[in-house]
Specification:
heterodimer, A: 403 residues, B: 150 residues
Chain lengths: 403, 150
């Protein structure tokens, strides 16, 4: 027995120690899980703060861009910045548009938007740790763009009636390189009319495209509405025109004094008439300007060779120097009627009080501007290209985020 | 007796292993859950970045297809173009949609499928909806603008 006692004691101790060891893994698990949970919670909360910081930066960037669009009116700029911050999830209490932060040369050229909020405390709040204040700011600058390319087509009428648009383009496969503008609305029928330059108008909903025909046409840049534009050619009146020839009856073909080679080459002249003026033929060339006070000017191609006409050499100074045809008539429409098949027509075609009708075909190229109260373009396969000298429409300002 | 004592200790052998067998799955599940939420947070970050890049492209007057491409490009392969929608608002009320001073909205529709999904009885959703929207001012005109729903 004495020998057994220690053994029994050892067994009891062994059992007791086994009892004491029970639940060890559970304790280790609880401790381990707590550590993992705390680390996870810290990671999640910090992740949320980083995420919120990026959200705030995105909202600040977009709000700054929006504010910069209104930089010409500082109050409007602030309001627009707040509006876009709100649209992206930050209300007025969390947004500031300070007026004295920009380091630009001129304060009105840039704007800064600051967004701030308290970071969320999802798990850290359990341990009494509050979320930090999260802030982001963005600065956007505004640069005025130069006017667009020179006018090709400019209609001064402010007519908003879709049944009689000031610029009415019925031509097919027309290529316009330069700016097209109507102080009213524009109708483009196509098909396949391509515009390499701004197309602008004034009337609400003022661009009317024939849906089935013009869907293959291209616009670079996309069309956009603008405010009313001043007349592209500031030629005042009939008395400004320096006439050098006054044919009787208006028939240029019949007046042989106007020709170097009758029916082929015209002398360089500013041919004026109080009434109508008309010339027709095929392969006619010359430096000649046609001017009518109250009558209609008609230029007609009769063959496929095409006419090659340029402004008179005697014209000089300002827009006058590039006039090819001008009519101040108001009671006839169109005041200038050109039917061109092939050939080239350089210079400005100007009818401030009435319509210019231009019907082109066979790859005719008109380089200059058609400026009139209303414009009708018809025909097919021809090109209208701007001539340097007449300014274009306002272009969207350049707005970008500062680094 | 000594043999019985050592047999008792021998009988307790593996007890920790069995306890661990019960505990380890819970530990792993906890780690997986944290990992899963981490991935979901990262996905949310990626989507916010993608929608923001799309909005910036849209603000510059890029076409709808270019805007979608910009967002998809920044999504680290998690988006296709049909997940991105672009619409415009006539903010300046001039009757023409898509000119300067209108606004554009880019929205991404994305669902993150949870790795530990299917255990909704403990409150873990099977998927998380991550659909951020960014609203930007239009700095250049666009063609073919689609009106946003009111």
């Amino acid at each position: 027995m004495p020998t057994l006692a220690p053994r029994a004691g050892r067994i009891r101790r062994s059992r007791a120690s086994a009892h004491r060891e029970r639940g060890q893994v559970l304790i280790l698990f609880v401790m381990g899980a707590t550590v993992i949970f705390v680390i996870g919670a810290i990671v999640v909360d910090i992740g949320l703060w980083v995420s919120e910081r990026r959200n705030a930066q995105a909202a600040a960037d977009l709000a700054a861009l929006a504010a910069a669009t209104q930089l010409r009116d500082s109050r409007a700029a602030g309001a627009k910045g707040l509006d876009f911050a709100k649209r992206n999830g930050y209300d007025d209490a969390h947004v500031r548009v300070p007026g004295d932060v920009c380091n630009a040369v001129r304060a009105e050229d840039c704007v800064t938007v600051e967004v701030h909020e308290d970071g969320p405390a999802l798990f850290s709040g359990i341990f009494g740790v509050l979320g930090p204040e999260i802030g982001a700011s963005a600065t956007a600058s505004y640069t005025e763009s130069p006017p667009g390319p020179g006018w090709v087509l400019f209609a001064n009428s402010s007519q908003c009636d879709t049944s009689s648009p000031p610029v009415n383009i019925l031509a097919n496969h027309l290529e316009v390189t330069g700016s097209t503008h109507s102080n009213g609305n524009i109708h483009i029928e196509g098909p396949d009319d391509n515009f390499f330059g701004p197309v602008t108008w004034v009337c609400p909903d003022g661009l009317d495209q024939a849906p089935d025909q013009q869907n293959t046409g291209t616009y670079r840049p996309p069309p956009y509405p603008v405010g009313s534009q001043p007349s592209a050619i500031p030629v005042g009146s009939w008395s400004d025109v320096p006439c050098t020839a006054n044919p009787s009856g208006g028939d240029i073909n019949a007046d042989l004094t106007l020709w170097d080679v009758p029916g082929v080459r015209l002398k360089s002249n500013v041919i004026c008439s109080d009434g109508d003026l008309f010339v027709s033929g095929d392969g006619i060339s010359g430096h000649v300007t046609l001017a009518a006070n109250r009558g209609k000017i008609t230029i007609t191609s009769t063959g496929s060779a095409g006419n090659r006409l340029q402004p008179a050499d005697s014209l000089s100074g300002g827009p006058l120097a590039k006039l090819l045809a001008v009519s101040f008539a108001s009671s006839v429409s169109p005041a200038i009627d050109i039917t061109a098949s092939g050939g080239t027509y350089d210079g400005y075609i100007y009818a401030p009080n009435s319509r210019v009708a231009f019907n082109g075909s066979a790859d005719v190229q008109a380089t200059g501007s058609i400026v009139a109260d209303t414009i009708l373009i018809s025909g097919n396969n021809f090109k209208l290209t701007a001539m340097a000298g007449l300014g274009g429409p306002p272009m969207p300002p350049e707005i970008h985020l500062e680094d | 007796m000594a043999r019985r004592g050592s047999r008792d200790r021998a009988g307790e052998r593996g007890q920790a292993l069995i306890e661990a067998m019960f505990v380890i799955p819970f530990v792993l599940a906890l780690i997986l859950l944290i990992l899963d939420f981490g991935i979901a947070l990262d996905r949310r970050e990626v989507m916010i970045h993608a929608v923001r890049e799309g909005a910036r492209a849209a603000a510059n007057g890029d076409s709808v297809s270019q805007v979608k491409a910009a967002a998809v490009d920044q999504s680290e392969g998690n988006l296709v173009t049909r997940d991105v929608s672009v619409c415009y608002r006539d903010d300046n009320l001039n009757g023409y949609l898509g000119d300067v001073n209108d606004s554009v909205e880019v929205t991404i529709s994305h669902e993150y499928r949870m790795l530990v999904g299917g255990v909704s009885w403990i409150g873990v959703p099977t998927q998380l909806d991550i659909s951020p929207t960014a609203k930007a001012p239009l700095l250049n005109p666009v063609t073919g603008a689609t009106q946003c729903p009111p």
